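Dear U.,

For the methods section draft, I wanted the exact inputs and outputs in one place so we can describe them consistently. I've listed the two proteins in the order they'll appear in the manuscript figures. Please don't edit the token lines directly; just add comments below if something needs changing.

First protein:
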Amino acid sequence: MKRQAVAFSLLALLALAPFASTAEQDEDGFPKQWQEIGVQFPSPPASDALIPLYVSAATANHFYIDGPSLSLGADQVIRYVLVVETPSGVRNVTFEGMRCESKSRRIYASGRPDGTWSKARHSDWVRISDAYANRQHAVLFLEYFCPFGNPVRTADEARNALVRGGHPDVRR
């Protein structure tokens, strides 16, 4: 009986082998630990390069992504500059990254009025949540950068999704 269970387990493993992860592996065959690449801060955003981002009717803020800042690193992190303008004219600029695999994001730096960057003091990866009023990161994840949890293949694909108002793979 024990032999049959072992044989069945081996057959099940062999049947699942084609569906195994295609992530890079170390010399022992285990998935390699993810490692973030070095990051360079982009140029400050130019008003004529900002792509509007609809977030929700629950907020009066206006959201934009700086098109030229969009990049997809070898580490599969989508990096971008997010600009948030309040109805009173206050403007917040952040340089951020998003990981589709872990559904997480981080802020690398905040933009200063003179166009320079101030490195973020707390720049840990945090889980993306879909809060009703403050959901810009959830919208970027779900509708633009990570359709069905998979990262876009290129920065141009992400930029085109923003210009179109959503990724073509996401059903509206």
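Second protein (the one for the lower panel):
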Amino acid sequence: MRTIENIDALSKLVGQELGTSSWMEIDQDRVNMFADATEDHQWIHVDVERAKAESPFGGPVAHGFLTLSLLPPLKADVFKVEGVTTRVNYGLNKVRFMAPVLVGSRVRARITLKSIEPRGEGRYMVCNEITIEIEGQDKPACLIEGLTLYIL
């Protein structure tokens, strides 16, 4: 994980890649737990045998929103900024699901700092471009433009 000494040092990195996370495996247990938490039990995610027989992907795939929900641990694995007391998920400007994540695949996040803007006393809006990569594949699972409010 990369440690950035303060918000001023972060602001000097606009336009640069901040790094990549470690690989995270997407197993069937994780997909099933996400299905239970969101009440989305669509067969393409949770019925392994049917997905192998009928899915155009040859097996079960992770929910797109499961992939998106992995942003907090993936981002935390890439970098931290010293002197920040709170980070608040502010939202997403853009999300595109580009390729399915097959169960058993591994994903990681590649993060580039797009912008940082002051938002009042000790507050900064940070916009990151995040690519969720699938190990061994050229096409990413997901392209995201995410917003985080940093509070000093």
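Candidate sentences for the figure legend, describing the second protein: Strands lie at 2-4, 17-20, 24-25, 79-81, 86-97, 106-118, 123-134, 142-151. Residues 2-26+70-151 form a domain with the Thiol Ester Dehydrase; Chain A fold (CATH 3.10.129.10).

Thanks,
Y.
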